[in-house]
Prior knowledge:
about 0% strand; about 50% helix; 2 domains; mainly alpha
Amino acid sequence: MPSTVHWNKSQLTGSQREQIAQEHKRMEGIEKPEQDVSRKPEFATGRPPGDNRTAEQIINDNPILKNLGHQKDINRSLAYKLLGDWTSNNKDPEARADAAFNAARVLNYIDTSLSADGEHRGKAHGNGDLEGITRSGDARHGTPAGMWKDFTEQGYSALREHHRLDSTSDTHVKADGTNKDNLQWAAGEAGKRTWFIPGLSNILLGIGDADQGLVGALKGAKDGFDKTRADGFDQALDSAAKGNIWGVLKGYASAVSKNEATPELVKSVLNKAAR
């Protein structure tokens, strides 16, 4: 693409215009094609012919763009180079609307990504919020915000064909690509270390995986306790009431082996012993 401060359709070469025309043809019949996430965006296209929406209309049609912040890792200046400037600083209404279309298309694709394991992200999926930004403005890897940051720095190659978030070893990132608050993080880490006490471990892990806030923590704790009961605690309790020590041990072993924090070696030994 020719050297320019911001992406602008008027600056494209003939071959680039041909590519865009082909991409626009694929958008025919789709009312709001920037919301079509069935295919990974490969390059900026601007609005297709017949789409006469203004930048304001496109922004209002796409909450993920409307809610985009100004934190440092959002990298707006880099994004404008790739997509065009969709803000009021752009005095060309056509170029501004094309930029809004480009940005919404990329953000919608990221917002509807599956987890790194290919699972639906539940309430975090397509919710119009680019999760993963810390209070200091950093975008954590393995989150939607982290993928947006990578996009602004690397271009369209940062978007994944399999439509998943990137995997991460960051313990502050939940499986659904959202950030853990300090309580969640501390509880989750404690839950991993207390795997040999399945009741406590599952409760702590439940808090670590729950929604932020007190209500989320209480629900997570209950979910963890209910999991422990189903995994073998009820069996152990019933056996204890009957004086069946072997049954108590089996219930305990079952709960430990089904705890996600239990080391694989321990799980293997317990599973073999249960046969």
